[in-house]
Task: structure prediction
Amino acid sequence: MLCVSIGRGRHRHMIAEHKHLVERGARLVELRVDYINGDVNLRRLLADRPCPVIITCRRQADGGKWRGTEQQRLLLLRTAIAEGVEYVDLEDDVAGSIPRFGKTKRIVSYHDFRKTPDDLQAIHDRLAAQDPDVVKLATMANQPHDNVRMLRLLRDAKVPTIGMCMGDMGTPSRILSARYNTPFVYSTFHHERVLAPGQLSFQQMIEIYNHDRIDPQTQVFGVIGDPIGHSLSPQIQNAAFRHADLNAVYVPFRVPAENLDQFLDDARELDIRGLSVTIPHKEAVLAKLTKLDPAVKGIGAANTIVFDGEHRIGYNTDYRAAMDSLERALVPPQYEQGSLREKTVLVLGAGGAARAIAYGLKIRSAEVVVTGRTPRRAQQLAEKLECKWVDWNNRYGLTPDGIVNCTPIGMHPNVDETPYDRLHLRPYMFVFDTVYNPESTLLVKEARSQGCTVVTGVEMFIRQAALQFKLFSGVESSWEMLRDVLRRLTGPAKQ
Ligand code: NAP
Result:
């Protein structure tokens, strides 16, 4: 169950948000009375409450906003109990001085905004000895492994326990704790008004992570990268799981480069079945895989891992998606269906996407020419793939049959930029822009106006997401549904 925390300065706003949340399905709400400006009128807040509540009054030292004295705060908590509130939150240092009374349940809580302490179990034992109905721990995650320690604690707890790691590295613990029979999970009213670092909103928990469906049987998937906050994969893959009615959740894991090995070792304990891999791990991850798809070997990078028993199998869906998108667009009479044989293709950029696409073009017998703003990178890629390269400033010196943009030029917010001048586009050329936000980049618009065959980054993105989903679940996903989700996420209102 989700508990939604509300922190507002005015009583009437808190009451209005409470009602609004219940109308949207909330069944438990935490009223953070430390946010109220001036005197707190508990009777007013509790009078016609539309669902059970937790009364919490957090000190500033514990991340709250309480400005009164400690004596006033303890009186407020005692009054809440006397008023018969469903739950009261008592920090572990005051829990002993506030006795149990009536039906009010006691949440004995502990917070550490700097770290997840080494002695987590000892802290839990201390809280469990203070007559709690629920033990609650909220600690800062400084490394992905902190989530594992917190979830392990939940798994082994003998008393009902809520445990979450704060910060963006702690997000997995917030999403996954529902797999460990935790009594409830905290969320916030709105994602822009978080009451603790890394908190997700009620709406995000329900609409993105399908939280109401998470239980101990839920299969775990996710994406690893650093940073990870910008990734659209959680929205896309969770929508696909929901659409296919599968009991699975896809989680964003922020994993810094130095924590990759430990994270992959922890994957089994987290019960992870599959991962998408993004920057900076696509190459480094190869050393930790036990089986590689042939394309992964050729490209030297993987963007997907499937965990199968003892095996960690690496795939590259970027490569397959790019080639499928391109070949579908190349039609007779100019091309025999899908044939790139002996076509000269200029690849703009020399990063991960360029590497996957240049490899695909090469094994389809195209004449690949790589160009990049850092000559050394372009040269290295050309040497690895045994193809040509040209200096970025000389990219207009050849007359290719097609170009593929593998740079971020033209991507939101720089939508007025193009990596290839309109004057050099010819109607016989194909133009493949891997940028997907926006779909109609300046390059795409100009290529269309010149009569070129055009392939967009959205085509590739949808295909790679569908291929990953198939590898994860064995199920085909609906392209239309994936396209709709992507368009909603990258549509004009979101830019
Ligand atoms: P990457 O590894 O960081 O490579 C980016 C490449 O672009 C590098 O060669 C970089 O040059 C070059 N570059 C960056 N800014 C440039 C500029 N202003 N002028 C000239 N060159 C520039 O990134 P990636 O993973 O290959 O991704 C590249 C793009 O591909 C992304 O922005 C994304 O839009 C697209 N992509 C799309 C999909 C899809 O499914 N549609 C999938 C993956 C990627 P340096 O080497 O000098 O830094």
